[in-house]
Amino acid sequence: MAIMLPLTSASFLFSFLLVVSLANSQSFIGVNYGQVADNLPPPSATAKLLQSTSIQKVRLYGSDPAIIKALANTDIGIVIGAANGDIPALASDPNFAKNWVNTNVVPFYPASKIILITVGNEVMTSNDQNLVTQLVPAIKNVQNALDSASLGGKIKVSTVHSMAVLRQSEPPSSGRFHPGMDSVMKELLGFNNATGSPFAINPYPYFAYTSDSRPETLAFCLFQPNSGRFDPNTNIRYTNMFDAQLDGVRSALNSLGFKDVEIVVAETGWPYKGDSNEVGPSLENAKAYNGNLIAHLRSKVGTPLMPGKSVDTYLFALYDEDLKPGPASERAFGLFKPDLSMTYDVGLSKSTNQAPPVASPKTPVNNPSPKTPVNNPAPKPQKKAVWCVPKAGVSDAQLQANLDYVCGHGVDCSAIQPGGACFEPNTVASHAAYAMNLLYQTAGRNPWNCDFAQTATISSNNPSYNGCIYPSGMGQSISNKLGSVVCLNRGVTRGKVEKNRKAPKYESGTRRRKMSSRERERDRDLELLIPVASGSSENGGSKSSSPSATPTTTPAHHSSREAFSKVIRSWASKKFMSGCVILLPIAITFYITWGFVHFVDGFFSPIYNHLGINIFGLGFVTSITFIFLVGIFMSSWLGASVLTLGEWFIKKMPLVSYIYSASKQISAAISPDQSSNAFKEVAIIRHPRIGEYAFGFITSTVILQRSTGDEELCCIYVPSNHLYIGDIFLINCKDILRPNLSVREGIEIVISGGMTMPQVLTTVEAQAIPQGRIGSFAVSKG
Known about the structure:
Elements: E1 2-6, H1 12-23, E2 29-33, H2 43-51, E3 57-60, H3 65-70, E4 77-82, H4 87-92, H5 94-104, E5 114-121, H6 129-148, E6 156-162, E7 166-168, E8 176-177, H7 182-195, E9 199-202, H8 205-210, H9 215-221, E10 229-231, E11 236-238, H10 241-255, E12 263-268, H11 283-299, E13 302-303, E14 306-307, E15 313-315, E16 387-390, H12 396-407, H13 428-442, E17 456-459, E18 476-478, E19 485-487, E20 492-493, E21 496-497, H14 517-528, H15 530-539, H16 549-610, H17 618-634, H18 637-651, H19 656-670, E22 681-686, E23 693-706, E24 709-721, E25 725-732, H20 743-751
Parallel strand pairs: 2-3, 2-15, 3-4, 4-5, 5-6, 6-9, 9-12, 12-15
Antiparallel strand pairs: 1-25, 7-8, 10-11, 13-14, 16-17, 18-19, 20-21, 22-23, 23-24, 24-25
Helix pairs in contact: 5-6, 6-7, 12-13, 15-16, 16-17, 17-18
């Protein structure tokens, strides 16, 4: 059933606020800065190192004033910590908490951007019941101390948990906290919810692998091709351990009624070396985990239960800590060496900006890397053409997993789509072979790029057939962005295009690869130039003395000039249009911005004109300042009281109350501080008739009570004009298609008029696979 309701239009301010909201919805990558070492570089050098990377936040386990000072004016967010040993004093003595804040926070803020204070680390699983009972009082006293210093709304307070706080998390939808922790956990989560502070957790897929060292578990932990693990309660197939662990935590929070408490990953990482008896530590595994994790976070895909956003994640760790006890792996988590060079590259440098190309799954090796960290030397380039092909006897299920992995990580798989040069034969084996080789060629042509959990091998035999050309990296250009493969072996001999190009020995000539638009344009230009080239080459610059030669050469020269003129006109036209395409969005942006400044400037300009002050833009500056001051005033108790009183008067006024209520709901929906009221999920519904679909967003759910029973309906908002005018439908939640798109991607599709719509949409249901064995999702560090 579907119930249609009209939705009023919103003003231009909605679009403006939407842009601001999207711009501020970025998630950032942080790093843990441990100090259990005697060889660390000075804090000033570390601050410069961090500024050269894309790392936006740093977590300290204490509150070292030298580090906090060094990070001043860098705009790097800082998390400081109160030790477990400080908890009793913080809990029992409010003055101790005030002194702690006055010593560790007040002297440095706001020059040093302190954003969070963690009281204790993994206290709930410390087996110290006295410490556990004092945790929440200590946190509250620190919060009160911040309030006394007028920092309560600027710096959050929380604590950090290990994954061991979960009684179970397999499958993720069954995530629950240990029953014995319920009373303390509910009080703690109530504080998190009331103050907006995060629930900080330490998930380590590495430790999950050490307890289950099968090859498929390693691929699952490293974000690499695998068959996945199925959650029968939600019909979701998880393809990596990180998402599964976070969704286990999300389910546990939801089960206690705290759906709005945000999750922060306080620690996660992978060691790059270990003792001889340790399974998992290696340079390749560490690079794969951290590199793929960073790419996953930057994609903002999120987890199945938290789609469309990336959880703030602090990598472990900035440096090795050579004084830490335990196995060698405990001293080998560092991303950087004490000399500030990279242990291995995971794309954190601002010069690279993106994580390196992802590697295919590597067979687990129990032997650790050398004790002394070494840089991975760049592999020598291949001297001959080689291809990455599946091994004989590999099952279709394994090949399908490889295919899904490759095409889901930015590789251009259009050649094996319907109509593509390599679509036939339409088999999993054929499509996977092409895709696996393409990733191998684009990811660097290293041996580990052609492992795929021991399902692939490097071959010197060319697998190309008919019009399907497998790139080999020799004489071909492979896109650096894992994009399409473009052959550059196109010849022009003595000024004329080779109409019958030399085909490889495996090509029958009956079917050819589709040329790109750029190649077709280049061929057209070359064909237009044929008369010029042929004229010069055939005449050779010598004049004929025969009169009969004149009639034949004149048309040739005429056609040459005509062809040359046509090429010039075509070239000029394309360049002119290119300029228009580039300048048009810039012009529109400046025009709208200029109009907005004029509009806002008009609010206060009459006052200044009356006073004899005529400075353009002064009214705009005054308006912005006024809005800022209103925001500050309304965040106070007095401002909130005034706002409540004003709303009471407005709601008593006919007509005006409806306008105000609708406007407030719209602004609340796009407010970055009220994300719970925004669009929940992208949805596709069958409308208006069979065979047609409408694209929209789930905004809420409602229970429809009838005599025949209750029915759960989803409220679907379907935009009809950009994003802020549309219709509302109430549809049975079971009749809704949920595509694999984040809310952000959905908004971009609507704003662009569908131009950013992906070529293939997959629903959540289509991603489910038959239930198989599900390993442990929740493994804690320590």
